[in-house]
Structures are given as C-alpha cells and as structure tokens.
C-alpha cells in the first residue's frame, strides 16, 4: 500500500468535504433525530459520508469503509484496508454554533492504525499523523507530550459525570475536578482528542464513544505519546462502543486508578 499517495488523496478529499460543509451553512439544514431526542443528524452528515464513500471507492474499490451514518456496506471485520469515518463529529455544534465540529478519518490495515485525521472545518486546521512518521497540526510537527502532575492538568469532562448517574461514581469525579487545574467540554470528541495531542488539554474521557469518534485520533495520539484506552485501562476496540480516555502518559493511570469507579 502506497501510504504517502493515500495520505495526499485523503488530505485532498477532506479539504473538499470541508468546503462543501462550509457552503452548506448558508442553506437550510434538514435535521432528524436518531437514537434519542439529542442524537441529531442532518442531510449534510449523510451527504458528506456519501461523498467520502464515492471518492474512496473510485480510488480503490477494495477499500472497506465504516461510517457513522451507515451509508457504506456493513463491516464484518477489520481485515484489509478499513477507513473509519465520522463525516461530522459534533453535529449539535454544527447545527447550533456553526463551529466546533470536525471531520475525522482513521485508516487501518488489518486492525493497525496507519493514518489518522481530525479536521476542524471552520478553523481550517488539519491534525494528522502517519504511523511512525510523527503527527502534525497543519505544517507544524507536534511535539511529544511532556509529563505534568495531575494538579496542573486541564481535563475534558462532561458535566453529567459530576452529578448522580448510572455509569460512574460521581463523588470521585468531583474529587478529580477539585484536584486538577481546570476542566473543559467542547462537544466534539475528536476536537477534544485534538486538544490533548497538541498539549492544549491533558486528558479527555467519555462514558461512550464509537469507533469513528476515536479511530483517527488514536493514530495521532500514538505519534505524540498520548495514551488511549477504555476506562478499564484496556486497549481500544474499533468494533464496538466503549468508554474512552486519552491522556498525557504521566496522568493516564492515576486518573483511572484513583478517580474512575465504573458502576
Ligand atoms: C458526538 C460528539 C460528542 C460526544 C458524543 C459523540 P456526533 O459525536 O463527539 O462530543 O460526547 O458521544 O457521539 O454524534 O456529533 O458525531
Ligand atoms: Ca457524526
Ligand atoms: Ca462523533
């Protein structure tokens, strides 16, 4: 597989898709709900995924595609070359804020991450990595993350986890929030992951993410030394939904062992 040629092709179609999404903001969106009233999808999410599928299959029909909106064929395994795509991550932000959303793509070969992309559409910032060749934000190579103590960390956390909930012991989350320097929540898992790989934030966790939320970011994370796992400190699984954490290597284990108590 010619990695650099695929990388150049991917950058091109991400920028084209981004331009189509920006143009769509001047038109009326068709908004529907999916699993629940807050799980939104628009015609642009679907059109963007279809655009990627058409482009990728015209490049190589053998490439397999797992997309959030299910516009491709069902994926039976991670064997071969698999593109894992979130056409718009942060759809609620896309609809309500017209910013703070991203396109994310991970390209895996037999389950190994080779190429990862997170494109902040409105800022025109592309975060990407090629396995073994470092990670970049646009033209700038990202540095490997420097260790820092937990009390100096900024962590990405959803406010729900510090209230009584059915997933995690909230009193321990309150202790974590008190201990760290600050918390943030951007409403786009991939942009939160992008913040960690750049060192603007030191951890981000979620109770439930899907393969397309993490596939691209995990490849970038490896190149800067950020640790990704589920909240049980097991390797991420790209075939099902799971809990998730990405963190600076110095604080990853401490957060899981001292503050995460899953129910
Ligand atoms: C969602 C966003 C959100 C995260 C959700 C995701 P979507 O993705 O990343 O920040 O909390 O778990 O499902 O639906 O906008 O692609
Ligand atoms: Ca999405
Ligand atoms: Ca998503």
UniProtKB/TrEMBL annotation:
**EC main group:** hydrolase
Recorded hits in Pfam families, A to Z, give:
Inositol_P
Keyword annotations for this protein? Hydrolase, Magnesium, Metal-binding
A GO BP annotation: inositol metabolic process
User: Which reaction is this enzyme known to catalyze?
Assistant: a myo-inositol phosphate + H2O = myo-inositol + phosphate
Q: Under the GO molecular function aspect, what terms does this record hold?
A: inositol monophosphate 1-phosphatase activity; metal ion binding
Tell me which PROSITE patterns the record gives.
IMP_1 (PS00629), IMP_2 (PS00630)
Q: Which cofactor does it need?
A: Mg(2+)
- Which positions are annotated as binding Mg(2+)? 68, 86, 88-89, 213
Q: What is its EC number?
A: 3.1.3.25
Recorded hits in PANTHER family, A to Z, give: INOSITOL MONOPHOSPHATASE (PTHR20854), INOSITOL-1-MONOPHOSPHATASE-RELATED (PTHR20854:SF4)
The name under which this protein is listed is inositol-phosphate phosphatase
Q: Which organism is it from?
A: Viridibacillus arvi
